[in-house]
Structures are given as C-alpha cells and as structure tokens.
C-alpha cells in the first residue's frame, strides 16, 4: 500500500490540470494519478475538430504532467473508503491519501440497442477506430445533433465520406442557437452533402460484421457501414455515491470545490458547483472549465482556500460557421441577435431578468474577455441597448 499526499482519480484534462495546480504551490510531495484510460492525459476538443483538418497531430494533443507524479494508466478505482482515506484498484492494489480529487468525468449515454457496433465517440481510442473507418471509405450514420454529433458529422463529410445525421430536434444544436439559426444550419449541412433527418428518432439498430441497419420511428430503415452516437454523457458518480458523498446531477461541491466529505474534492464534467457569477448551481462539460476547475481544485488541495469564480468559454467549428461563447448560452432564454451578416457574423446576447447571462461570438474574435466582463458586471440592461455593445472587425 502506497500513501499519496495528493491522489487524483481521473487522468483527463481535469486531472492533469489539477496536478499542475498542485505543483504551483507544492513542488515536492508526490502526486498519485489513476486513469482508466491507457493513454496519458490529452486534450479532447481536437478529437472532433483539429485532428480531422490537419491542424493537430495525435502526438501534439497530449498534456504534460509535472514532475514527481506517479501515474497508473489503464487502472480503475473500484472502491473508495473515506474513513480509511483509501482506494482500491481493479488489480487489487490499495493506496491511501491525504487529499483526494474525483475527476471521473462522464460516461457516454448509450442506446438500448446496437451494442459494440456503435462508436460512442469520446476517447482517443474512439478517434483511432473512426479514422480507420474513414480510410476504408465507410458510409456513416451519426446520431445526435448536439456538440459532438454535429462536429463529427462535419468532420467526416470533410473527409469525403457519405454521412447521414439523425436527430430528434428540428435544428442543429438547437439548445444553444436561436431556432432560425439552428434551422439554417440544417440547410448548410445539406448543402455540404450531409443527409439530415431532423425530428427523427432511432428505434433500433441491427448490426453485424458487414454493416448496420438503423430503424427510425416512422418505420424507415437506413443502411450504413458504421454508426456514431453523440447523445451526451452521464456524470460518473459511482464512487461518490458508494462513498455517501452528496450527489445531484454530478457530485455536489462548495465554492472551494470540496465535496461534503472533508479532504475530498471534485472537478470537471462530474462536479456540480455554485457559480457565483451566474448565481446558480451548474455542471459544465467544456474543456476550458475542465482546465480551470482542475487547476483550482489542485491549488485548494494544497490549502490555497481560493473560491472558484470563473466563467468558462466554449467554441465550435461547423463548416463555415465558427464561434466562441461564454456564460449561459441557452436557447430557452431571450436572445438579442446583433448580426453583421445574418447567421454568419455577429454577436448573440442571452438575457434573463434584464441581465446578460451569456454571449456568443459568431466569427467575432478576441472578444471573449469583453463578453465575460459584460456578464460578470451583472448590470441590469435594456435589451434594445445591446446591439453594437460588442463589435467584430
């Protein structure tokens, strides 16, 4: 049994950021890091973006760990005992800790059919499998019109493969974009040769070594060589729940990212934290949040006592449409649209109760800090005054 002053469960972006955060304040004591993936930590956004358009190579997406970190790659923690401050791994090994971080992320939502013939695109291994399918010239069906589904469908089409995108919503990423913009994106995807089946649901997948057949709710049957599903994730709270930590849409943490049990912290996709700026609890699944929250948790594990107060940004590239966004960009809010070129260049302001909650910058660059400052100010605004507030060159 090895004792670690700091032990991190989860070897993704959050875990790596936490290790580096610890090293900012403690350059000596050893850090243990346990990761279910066999790979060292890596950035996830390139999996659906820059790896496909040649802007990144696989060897360039790995995240460097600081010195004096003992990693356990390809290992899972199967038991957590807060009273004994101990964890047990799937190979039977046990380790004790002084302070622990749960950076367990989330598991892809799975369909009740299709089995292993569906690629639930989330890991580097999933990318490698999909890349091999692309090189074979496979025909793809992508299920899901949110972030992952829309990005993967665009990336596959750019490689010249036949792609069908199936989604229950009327428009692409309609939980983020205004309805007319989401519908416009459907037209854009079709113009690029993607068959888009909006307001459609998959009811069955039959697959074997020769391919797959997808059945829709209206009885239609579609053939493909490979199925990719991007239908969201479920936070991995199994260890937290077994250890009787408070769990509600993720692991509940306080402003210092500490759970309801002393010396156990949580960060990243799995953490449900109090957002002091927006005045709400939320769980954020974006890379910028993973890095910022991981760093903050690492620093607080060393005793920094710093409240986590940060508005993470996110971004996407969907054919010609590229954007950066910050805050609560939810299409259910009132949206003030300030277009320089409709659906192509402009700023969207997401407003609730007279306050700007989120800002999306469509082909408007180097304005994230300005957008973040507008949200953080928390001033009551007249929606009619917002157009022109942030302008792109």
The number of helical segments is 7
Largest sheet: 7 strands, mixed
Class by helix and strand content?
A: alpha/beta
Form type: globular
Overall number of strands: 25
First-last Cα distance? 59 Å
- Helix percent band: 10-25%
Query: Radius of gyration, Cα only, in angstroms?
Result: 22 Å
Mean pLDDT: 96
Beta-strand fraction estimate: 25-35%
- Which residues form runs of ≥5 with pLDDT under 50? none
Describe this structure in words.
The chain has 393 residues and is an alpha/beta fold. The protein has seven helices and 25 strands. The strands form six sheets. Strands 1, 2, 3, 4, 5, 6 and 18 form a seven-stranded mixed sheet that branches. It has a five-stranded parallel sheet with strand order 8-15-9-10-11. The chain has a five-stranded antiparallel sheet with strand order 21-22-25-24-23. A hairpin with a 4-residue loop joins strand 13 (211-216) and strand 14. Helix 1 (13-25) packs parallel to helix 6 (287-301). It is globular. The chain starts with a strand and ends in a 16-residue tail after the last helix. The model has no long low-confidence stretch (mean pLDDT 96).
Summary keywords:
393 residues, 5-stranded parallel sheet, 7 helices, 20% helix, 32% strand
SSE diagram, text form:
Elements: E1 2-9, H1 13-25, E2 31-35, E3 69-73, E4 77-81, E5 86-89, E6 94-102, E7 106-108, E8 118-119, H2 124-135, E9 140-143, H3 147-158, E10 163-166, H4 179-191, E11 195-197, E12 202-208, E13 211-216, E14 221-224, E15 226-229, E16 233-235, H5 238-242, E17 251-252, E18 264-266, E19 271-275, E20 280-282, H6 287-301, E21 313-318, E22 321-327, E23 334-341, E24 345-352, E25 355-362, H7 368-377
Parallel strand pairs: 1-2, 1-6, 2-3, 6-18, 8-15, 9-10, 9-15, 10-11, 17-19
Antiparallel strand pairs: 4-5, 5-6, 7-16, 12-13, 13-14, 19-20, 21-22, 22-25, 23-24, 24-25
Helix pairs in contact: 1-6
